[in-house]
Design goal:
The chain is an alpha/beta fold. It contains 9 helices and 20 strands. The radius of gyration is 22 Å and the shape is globular.
């Protein structure tokens, strides 16, 4: 554990702590190795598998407003001009020195994500710093802690500071326009961490027929159209996702009816497509880590192989599949194994011809394997 921490891993797991910590949540705790040498300092987290979240490897450390201000400025400086100015991650949790918390810029508003309760211990001090340094129109907080309500449905994002946001904010990504809602309970409507995947997808779309499974608000479809795709089909369980896609097409000066929209369960539709002999040249597979649609449950951890088997039935000869997983618990090796098994079960063969991961505004410490949650793999079929 000491080696991992010194290499930059930000978590001390509870089973590695030799003595119970009778300290308040958020207390700064010196972290020592088994020989009694100081490793650094962490914030105490009384509950859960993580006992301490590292905040510094320095010999002397104080967790206060001055330190937070320096870290916010450093995070902004690191990003420079290499990321979109209207839609990007400004603070990426532990990598930028803020355990259990992230901050996105969406237009003139900021959206703060709380991933762990520990963030509550310093959030009140951080918000005025964000206002001072970034001068947003308003700031919202989205609670991403699992089970925040009895039925596990997340409430809308909470207004923290500044002016309330309008229902729709238009943001630019590489010249395309997307409407986002910073008050939404789960996603504002554009997954910023998939930016590199969208760029990769656009580059391979030219003169190909495209099927976008789990299409959500259609960001990949817009990329495909601009990339010169012959046709684009979207499949999603929610009709409202298709409606937002049409709005995004209009905002980007594209025909709002340029994409075929099909609503329904992906597994059932894939089987229907297979039976009818319908195939595409390029298929994107970007399922949620977990979903339950009309009693049909999908878990990326258990079901990705079966999904790839179904997808393989609608890929034309020599076709491509962009397979994506953002399930933290589904590691790289397990993901590739599930993909390969699914392709083989369908009687097909495929090869990995491209891949990408998180964009530069989502940095990860080298030793923090859990932080590299996003897997984007481009496969070419036989």
């Amino acid at each position: 554990m000491a080696r991992l921490l010194r290499a930059g891993h930000p978590w001390v797991f509870r089973n590695a702590v030799q003595r119970p910590l009778a300290l308040p949540e958020g207390a700064v705790v010196p972290v020592m190795d088994p020989d009694g040498y100081l490793i650094g300092h962490g914030l105490n987290e009384p509950e859960g598998a993580i006992a301490l979240r590292m905040v510094s490897l320095a010999a002397e450390f104080e967790w206060n407003e001055d330190e937070m201000l320096a870290r916010v400025r450093a995070a902004v400086r690191r990003r420079g001009t290499s990321v979109p100015s209207e839609a990007c991650r400004l603070i990426h949790s532990e990598a930028d020195g803020f355990p259990g918390l992230a901050v996105d810029r969406l237009g003139s508003h900021l959206l703060v994500y709380k991933y762990a309760k520990i963030a509550e211990t310093y959030l009140d001090a951080l918000v005025p710093i964000l206002e001072q340094e970034l001068k947003p129109t308003g700031i919202y907080l989205q609670d991403r802690i699992r089970g925040v309500t009895p039925d596990d449905r997340r409430p809308p994002a909470f207004h923290l500071a500044g002016k309330p946001a309008p229902p729709e904010i238009e943001v630019d990504e590489d010249g395309l326009k997307f409407l986002v809602d910073v008050t939404a309970p789960v996603s504002p409507g554009l997954f910023l961490d998939l930016r590199e995947g969208r760029r990769l997808f656009e580059a391979w779309s030219r003169e190909r027929s495209v099927c976008n499974l789990f299409s959500f608000t259609g960001a990949f479809g817009l990329r495909a159209l601009r990339g010169g795709a012959r046709s684009v089909t979207h499949v999603d369980a929610a009709a409202r996702s298709h409606a937002r896609c049409r709005q995004n097409l209009s905002a980007s000066k594209m025909d709002p009816e340029a994409i075929e929209a099909i609503t329904g369960d992906a597994f059932a539709l894939l089987e229907k497509f297979r039976q009818r002999g319908r195939v595409w040249d390029l298929v994107i597979v970007d399922p949620p880590p977990f979903s339950n649609v009309k009693g049909s449950t999908f878990s990326a951890l258990k079901d990705y192989g079966e999904l790839m088997r179904a997808v393989s039935g609608v890929v034309g000869p020599g076709g491509l599949v962009l397979a994506i997983s953002n399930a933290v618990r589904l590691g790289e090796e397990e993901f590739l194994l599930a993909v390969g098994e699914g392709v083989h079960a369908a009687g097909r063969a495929a090869r990995l011809v491209g891949e990408c991961g998180l964009p530069p505004d989502f940095p990860v410490p080298p030793a923090f394997i859990e932080g590299r949650y996003l897997k984007v793999k481009l496969l070419q079929f036989d």
